[in-house]
Here is the input.
Amino acid sequence: MKLQELINKYYYKLNETDFCIWEYISNNKKECKDLTINQLAYKCNVSRTTILRFAQKISLKGYSELKLYLKLENQDIKESKSKIEMVCNTYYDVIKSIKEKDCTDIFKEFDLARNIYIYGVGMVQSSIKNEFKRIFLTSGKTFYDLSGYKEAEICLNIANSEDLFIIISVSGENEFIIDFAYKLNIRNIPILSITKLKENTLSKISNYNLYISSVTLPNTINELSYNSVTSYFILIEILFLKYIEYKKEIGE
Here is the structure.
């Protein structure tokens, strides 16, 4: 799990000072990996105890573990002019992240859910939803595809806490989707969000989170940008394989 994932997971435990610390760290990861706790405290204008508490709030044992995360993440940052290498690196990040992630609670929700709804707006999201439905078909799971705003609003009247919503949002900041997710929270309906690995509102208000690494390549052909979305499909396939393993482990 990356530091950004921990920040998203424990967002509501953090205060304004914690966010200031994280802002400095996230903007200066290369520098921070070599700083002592006293040096980082000085840079952030806080006490060493505040830095230690920040690390503990995001489930780390102490500052040494925070530095270990920073060193590992800095190893993953490779400066390269090769667009192919940049894209391949994002695939590797997604594979490593989902392979190591404990998805037990997500799979329990899959099996307990009365209905599973999958929601996303846009062409990219539509392709991702179709792949999700296709690949999980052999597991016997049926996903109810919601595409439009009107469909989502209607579904609020029939869904309850026994259902599960999978919400796909690249940015995690779509205004309607955020409002929709809050309404699901009020009804105690669990949410699994799939977004880019960055700080975003949807991931903070979801019960479960899956993340993808993505890259935008500027000025590829005819000065148009290219957004790689293959990471979503890699994530879904490995999630499916992990689900099959989970079912075997519980004897089903």
